[in-house]
C-alpha cells in the first residue's frame, strides 16, 4: 500500500530546514515556483513580525527529481535560513575547542533561562534535561512550519492532477468575526487571496486590522479562527474500520499539532451542539437524472470517518502567540526565582499564516489517503486506477 510520509529537521535560527518525502510516485512534475508562492503566503499577513522582512523563503529540491519530474525515489527539499548568518556562533553544530571571545559572548547573549508561559520552554527543559531554553525554543518554534508548507505545496500539486483543489481563509481575529460569506467557495477563495488577512470580506478585514493595531500598541497578541476547504474529493477516503483510520481523526491530529492551535472542527463543528438532529444531518436527494445531491453540508464532507463526496471543511482555532512585549510573570529556571518572561522577536497576529500551514497539513493527509486508496508507482498508473 503506497504511503506519503515525510520527516523534517532544522531549527529556527539554524542553517536550514529540510524534509525528506517518501511515497511520491514517478512522473509528477514538481514546480518550485508554486512552492515558493505558498512559502510567501505563509510569510505574509497583517500583524507579522520583523523576521518576515529578513527571510524570503525559497525551496531547493536536492534529490528525487530529475528534469522536473519525480523518479519514484525519496524527494529531499531544503529552505536556507538567511538569518543564520547572524547566529552562526550560537547555532554551530560543531563544539568549539577554542572558542573566541565573540563566540562566547554571542552564546551567552542568546541563552536564556526565563520560562515563557504558553511555550514548550518549561516542559521541554524538564523532559530533555536542558539548562538553556534556547535548545527548546529552536525546534519548538513555528519556524519549522515553513518546510511543512513546502511539503504541503507538493501534496497540493499532486492533488491538482486529480482535480482536487483547496484553499484556506480567516474567519475570526480576536473578537472580530466574519459574518458575511460570499455565496460560493470560488468567491470566498478569490476574495481571501486578495486580502492581507486572508479574509473574504473587506469591511471585516478592516475591523480585524484595527484590533491587531490595538493589540500591538498594548504589547499584546491576538489569535483567531480559520477554515480549510478542499473540493472535488472522491467518495471513500478514510475508513470506519479502526479508530486511527478515520479521516476526521487524522485531519484533527494534523491541524491540532500546528503550534498554537487549540481546537479543530469538521463541518458545523461546535455549533452541532445547538442543532437538533433534523437540522444537523444532511438529507440526501436524487433528481430525475438519477444524480444524488445534498442541500446542506453540516458534516463537512465526512461521515463515519470517510469522505462522502461533499466539500471538505476543516476549522482551526489559534490561541494568541505567547511571546509578548508585555511580559508575563514567570520563573527563572536557573535561579528558581520570580522573573519576567524572556522576549523573542515575535508576531502580533499570525492567524493567516497558521491557515496556510493548516492548508498544507490537510493536503498532506489527503494525498496519503488518495495514494492508499488507488495506489500506483507512477502518475500514469495512478490516473489509470483513479479513472477506473
Could you characterize the architecture of this molecule?
It is a single chain. The chain has 388 residues and is α+β, with helices and mostly antiparallel strands. The chain has helices spanning 32-43, 51-54, 101-110, 121-128, 134-140, 145-160, 185-193, 202-218, 247-256, 277-280, 351-374, 379-387, and strands at 5-10, 16-22, 59-63, 65-66, 69-70, 75-80, 165-173, 176-177, 224-231, 261-266, 284-286, 292-294, 302-303, 306-307, 312-318, 329-332, 337-340. The radius of gyration is 22 Å and the shape is globular. Helix 1 (32-43) packs across helix 6. It has one domain (5-387): Chorismate synthase AroC (Chorismate synthase, AroC fold). Helix content is 34%, strand content 20%. The mean pLDDT is 94. The protein has a five-stranded antiparallel sheet with strand order 8-7-9-15-10. Strands 1-2-6-3 form a four-stranded antiparallel sheet. The longest helix is centred in the C-terminal third of the chain and has 24 residues, at 351-374.
Amino acid at each position: 500500500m503506497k504511503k506519503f510520509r515525510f520527516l523534517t529537521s532544522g531549527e529556527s535560527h539554524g542553517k536550514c530546514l529540510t524534509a525528506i518525502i517518501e511515497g511520491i510516485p514517478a512522473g509528477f512534475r514538481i514546480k518550485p515556483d508554486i512552492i515558493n508562492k505558498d512559502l510567501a503566503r505563509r510569510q505574509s499577513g497583517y500583524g507579522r513580525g520583523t523576521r518576515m522582512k529578513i527571510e524570503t523563503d525559497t525551496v531547493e529540491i536536492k534529490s528525487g527529481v530529475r528534469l522536473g519530474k519525480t523518479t519514484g525515489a525519496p524527494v529531499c527539499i531544503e529552505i536556507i535560513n538567511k538569518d543564520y548568518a547572524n547566529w552562526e556562533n550560537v547555532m554551530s553544530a560543531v563544539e568549539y575547542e577554542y572558542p573566541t571571545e565573540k563566540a562566547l559572548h554571542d552564546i551567552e547573549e542568546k541563552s536564556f533561562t526565563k520560562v515563557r508561559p504558553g511555550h514548550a520552554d518549561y516542559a521541554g527543559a524538564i523532559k530533555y534535561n536542558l539548562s538553556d531554553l534556547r535548545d527548546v525554543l529552536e525546534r519548538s518554534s513555528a519556524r519549522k512550519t515553513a518546510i511543512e508548507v513546502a511539503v504541503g505545496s507538493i501534496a497540493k500539486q499532486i492533488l491538482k492532477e486529480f482535480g482536487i483543489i483547496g484553499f484556506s481563509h480567516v474567519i475570526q481575529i480576536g473578537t472580530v468575526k466574519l459574518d458575511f460569506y460570499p455565496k460560493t467557495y470560488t468567491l470566498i477563495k478569490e476574495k481571501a487571496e486578495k486580502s492581507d488577512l486572508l479574509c473574504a470580506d473587506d469591511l471585516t478585514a478592516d475591523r480585524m486590522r484595527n484590533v491587531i493595531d490595538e493589540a500591538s500598541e498594548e504589547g499584546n497578541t491576538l489569535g483567531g479562527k480559520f477554515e480549510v476547504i478542499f473540493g472535488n474529493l472522491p467518495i471513500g477516503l478514510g475508513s470506519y474500520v479502526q479508530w486511527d483510520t478515520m479521516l476526521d481523526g487524522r485531519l484533527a491530529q494534523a491541524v491540532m499539532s500546528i503550534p498554537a492551535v487549540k481546537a479543530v472542527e469538521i463541518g458545523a463543528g461546535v455549533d452541532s451542539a445547538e442543532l437538533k438532529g433534523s437540522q444537523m444531518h444532511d438529507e440526501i436527494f436524487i433528481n430525475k437524472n438519477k444524480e444524488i445531491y445534498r442541500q446542506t453540508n453540516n458534516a463537512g464532507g465526512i461521515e463515519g470517518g470517510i469522505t462522502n463526496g461533499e466539500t471538505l471543511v476543516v476549522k482551526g482555532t489559534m490561541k494568541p502567540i505567547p511571546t509578548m512585549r508585555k511580559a508575563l510573570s514567570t520563573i527563572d529556571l536557573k535561579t528558581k526565582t520570580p522573573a519576567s518572561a524572556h522576549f523573542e522577536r515575535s508576531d502580533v497576529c499570525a492567524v493567516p499564516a497558521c491557515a496556510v500551514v493548516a492548508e498544507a497539513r490537510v493536503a498532506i493527509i489527503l494525498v496519503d489517503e488518495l495514494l492508499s486508496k488507488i495506489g500506483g508507482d507512477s502518475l500514469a498508473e495512478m490516473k489509470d486506477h483513479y479513472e477506473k
